Amino acid sequence: MLAPHFAVTSSLLGNEDIGHGGFDAVVIAADLKEFQNIAALKEIFPKFENARKRIFIIDQKARLLVFQAYALGATHVLTHPVTQQKLLATLSDGDKSGIALEDASRGTQQAASCGATALASMFSAVLGGKPIDIADAKHAAGKIADSIANDGLSSWLETVRRHHEGTYQHCLLVVGVAVDFGLSLGLARRDIERLYSAAMFHDIGKAKIPLAVLDKPGKLDPEERSLIETHPTAGYDVLIATPGISPEILDAVRHHHEFLDGSGYPDALCAASISDVVRILTISDIFAALIEDRRYKPPMPRDRAYEIICNMRGKLEAPLVVAFKDVALSR
């Protein structure tokens, strides 16, 4: 399937001579319901951590299997049957613009991988009714903040969009945009920490939403839209009894879709009831959603995304929208 297009080395899982790294991409087809396969992958995966793409092929689109693949280090997850065209398209960079992973700094690559792994762990914990590792999630978000400070937002956006998909891509983009927004505003380190923690947890409620709705290509119908709009309260309900989650983070998780004019959800809050952290997070969330790279839609240009935000008059804080221009267009 791949040999005419790539130089291919193949091996069975468990083979001690499976390789010594140096691969540009790795494709793994394994039954992730089997503990021994997971253990074997954990043992060999350090050899593949520098691969630009780590594609898992699983037997069914069961959420726990998808989360397990991402937790192991996947950048893409495909489900059987996989056509040659689909696999080649996933391996190929196609017509995507932006930097290649090898052009990004090692810190950016590692922060993105660490962030995706933490998100996968959180979503898996929610789905399985297990405790969320709050410290691990905050540590991963802190690494993202350091990456943004060192390498800039553009490097982060292109690295994440090129190598992560769906809800994980969105969450990673939101953390990066929110951090850069905070840096551009001159916020103190403590305030940046509050912001990246809120961003890291803001969409945890989406773990409760069926993948068929989350990953639907195209417009949602009214019933699906109503289901999506339950994710802020679902996230709030998951986190409210979790040690280490501050009231400020809970507020951000529940209210990041509220608007100043009261037209948002779930509580139809108005201006006076919406905190500064939520106001910053909401702008970051909208911008990240607009510039996402989705399977069915290329990313919107950043200037067009900012134009849409500017046109949301009365819903977003105008001085913050003005201050966001540099983040949206230049950083």
From TrEMBL:
GO terms for molecular function: phosphoric diester hydrolase activity. CDD domains: HDc. It holds the Pfam family HD_5. InterPro entries: HD/PDEase_dom, HD_GYP_dom, HDIG_dom. Residues 145-331 form the HD-GYP domain. NCBIfam families: HDIG (TIGR00277). PANTHER family: CYCLIC DI-GMP PHOSPHODIESTERASE PA4108 (PTHR43155:SF2), CYCLIC DI-GMP PHOSPHODIESTERASE PA4108-RELATED (PTHR43155). This is HDIG domain-containing protein. It comes from Bradyrhizobium erythrophlei. The lineage of its organism: Bacteria, Pseudomonadati, Pseudomonadota, Alphaproteobacteria, Hyphomicrobiales.
